[in-house]
Amino acid sequence: MKVLHVEAGKHLYGGALQVVFLLRGLGAEGVDNVLAAPLGSAVAEAAAPHARVVQIAMGGDADLGMLGRLRRLIRAERPDVVHLHSRRGSDFWGGLAARLEGVPVVLSRRVDNPEPRAWVALKYRLYDRVVTISEGIFRVLEAEGVPRAKLRCVPSSVDVEQYRPGRSERAWLEAEFGIAPDERVVGMAAQFIARKGHRTLLAALPAVLAAHPRTRFLLFGQGPLREAIENEARAAGFGERVLFPGFRQDLPRVLPNLDLMVHPAEMEGLGVALLQAAACGLPIVAGRAGGIPEIVLPGVNGELIEPGDVAALSRHMNALLADDALRERYGAAGREHVVARFSVAAMVRGNLAVYRELAPSR
């Protein structure tokens, strides 16, 4: 079986990282993978060992030329299935290109934000199957009118061998970020965009720091709101209590040495950073949004808040920072949950099953 994958993301996190995991697993199953990726993108480089990569211009929703470029690529490669992994124009233009070339097409949907029903009715006619990375997204699409027969849920995955518990490098973490040995460290790893909830976290910090003044917060990531959030943290007087290390490639080294992960998101398809944190044995406090409740089980491996509930976020963070045994119990349960449900192998099997529905003879 040959599958042409289309990924328009340039950076190697979130959905693009899932594509690399999928390509690696499918290759081990004997699938011939071809990846169309943006020129000079990190995903193109990372996918090269697992697929034949074709770098093309991808200019977003308004890039009409993407239709022609993808049609030519489909004609040249003659895949059994086209799998579209992202938006940024590749979903619509890719779906139209595959439909015009007569090739079955799969769309992965990774976000839970609703779309206009009229647009849904038009756009989703292009796809033979829509793979949602969480049950939350599945429900959103079904409510918008996408036929249930088209929908399949295949959760995103985490490399549980790469992301593992262990605090053997706590001294390195302290040296790397200027943290004292007696300080607790809380992490958040997310793009700096409004729906991730950074401002909810900032609003919760005074109550947390009043109860646990020897706590540091590491806010990993990049994005359009980063500078504004940094300025707000500085204006609030948090000083060195809140650090902004940017996007880090070494999270498998960083995460196991944290004490707690927070993610007060208002919308979230699933949350790859939460899978990584849970795999590392971290307790989590997160927003009850999208697919997050499929990762964070209240009273088992973490706690959930209603989006924007500052008081609840402060309360749960304080309870976990005060109780070493509770953090350890939640962390162990989180690792067990992720290994059982969100392995790379399970994600590969789920997507391969969808391809075989559409190209059974292959």
From TrEMBL:
Query: What Gene3D superfamilies does the record point to?
Result: Glycogen Phosphorylase B
Q: Name one GO molecular function term.
A: hexosyltransferase activity
List each copy of the Glycosyl transferase family domain by range: 176-336
* Signal peptide bounds: none
Identify the residues that the record assigns to the Glycosyltransferase subfamily 4-like N-terminal domain, covering every copy. 14-162
The alphabetized UniProt keywords are: Transferase
SUPFAM superfamilies referenced in this protein's UniProt entry, alphabetically:
UDP-Glycosyltransferase/glycogen phosphorylase
Could you tell me what this protein is called? Glycosyl transferase, group 1
Q: Which organism is it from?
A: Rubrivivax gelatinosus (strain NBRC 100245 / IL144)
Gene for this chain: waaG
